[in-house]
Amino acid sequence: MNIKLADLERRNGEPLPFKATLDEVDLKSRHHEIRSMTPVEAEGEAVQLGNLYYVSGKMKADVNFICARCLNPFTHHAAVSFSETFAPEDDPVLGEDEDSDILPLEGDEIELDALLQEDFLLAMPTFPLCEDDCKGLCPTCGVNRNEVACSCKNERIDPRLAGLADFFKDSK
C-alpha cells in the first residue's frame, strides 16, 4: 500500500485514514516459527505536520505457533501497534542525528507494505510459548508436564562435580 504525499499535503494537517491487508504467505515464509495465520489487517492514519509525515496505527491477526517447550499448537491473537516518521531526503533533520528514527522519503509516495511487514515480524516471538509458565516436556519420559506430573528425577549434576556425589554416597 502506498500513500501519496500530494494527498496528505492537500489535507492541511488533517489525518488521512487507511486500511490495508498484508500478504500472510509472504509473512509466514519470513518467520520460521509461524505455522499458519489469518491475513494481517492494518488500520491507521497518515498526517503531514510541517516537513514531517507521520504514519501510525494497529495491525491484527491470529497467528498459529507450536509451543517451543511442550510442542502443543496454540493461537496467538497478535495486535501490533506501529508508528513511523518520514522526512524528504533533502531535509536537514535527517543529517542531524545518525540514530534518528526518521526515515527518508524516496519519491512522491510513502511505501508502507515493507515497513508494516517488518514491524509485524519483529513483534512476533522467536521462542513461542503457549503460556509464560509452560513446564514443557519431561526430558526423561517425554510426558507433557503441563498435563501430568511425572515422577522422574531430572537432577542435573555438573560433570566436574559428579565425583563428589559418589563420595557422599559412600559416607552414608
Largest sheet: 6 strands, mixed
Count of distinct strands: 8
The portion of residues forming beta strands comes to 25-35%
Mean pLDDT: 87
Taking pLDDT < 50 over at least 5 consecutive residues as the criterion, the unreliable ranges are: none
The shape, in one word, is: elongated
Task: Tell me the span between the first and last alpha carbons.
Answer: 74 Å
Rg calculated over all Cα atoms: 25 Å
Q: Provide a count of the helices.
A: 5
Q: What structural category arises from helix and sheet content?
A: alpha+beta
How helix-rich are the residues, as a percent range? 10-25%
Order of helices and strands: EHEHEEEEHEEHH
Describe it for me?
The protein is α+β, with helices and mostly antiparallel strands. Helix content is 22%, strand content 35%. It has five helices and eight strands, in the order βαβαββββαββαα. It has helices spanning 5-10, 24-30, 93-96, 113-123, 162-170, and strands at residues 2-4, 16-22, 36-37, 40-49, 52-66, 73-88, 102-105, 109-111. Strands 2, 3, 4, 5, 6 and 7 form a six-stranded mixed sheet that branches. Helix 3 (93-96) links the parallel strand 6 (73-88) and strand 7. The longest helix has 11 residues, at 113-123. The termini are far apart.
Quick gist of this model?
The protein has 172 residues and is of the alpha+beta class.
